[in-house]
Write a structure and sequence with these properties.
Elements: E1 2-16, E2 19-33, E3 36-46, E4 61-70, H1 75-83, H2 85-94, E5 99-105, E6 110-111
Length: about 110
């Protein structure tokens, strides 16, 4: 079962496929099945051309696996991954010539 442990939209600075991306959806995702769990940090950049435009496009989606092994969801692990999410996402975005503007959230955070 795939669960977004955390997600929030932020302003962003990026260009993908010739399109300016002014928004980023940052996520911590857990995927559990048959006694195994995987945690991933992910970011996708979207145009956000208007204040209410949150149409996420997946042509600019990047992720990094943080953990994969036997077990189940752990609040302790999730807490650690959330504390270091920015340090994980910044290099991931930077490798693509993009940046997340962490001081400019577009939505409240959601936790699952």
């Amino acid at each position: 079962m795939v669960i977004n442990v955390y997600d929030r939209c932020y302003r962003a600075d990026a260009v993908f496929s010739g399109v300016r991306r002014n928004g980023a959806l940052v996520m911590l995702i857990s995927d559990s099945e048959a006694g195994s769990i995987t945690y991933k940090a992910a970011v996708t950049f979207f145009p956000h051309t208007e204040e209410d435009d949150f149409a996420v496009s997946y042509d600019a989606y990047f992720e990094k696996e943080l953990y994969s092994g036997k077990g189940r969801r752990s609040k302790k692990k999730e807490s650690v991954y959330l504390e270091t999410l920015r340090e994980t996402i910044d290099p991931l975005a930077g490798e693509q010539g993009a940046s997340v503007l962490w001081d400019e959230p577009l939505t409240p955070e959601r936790r699952g």
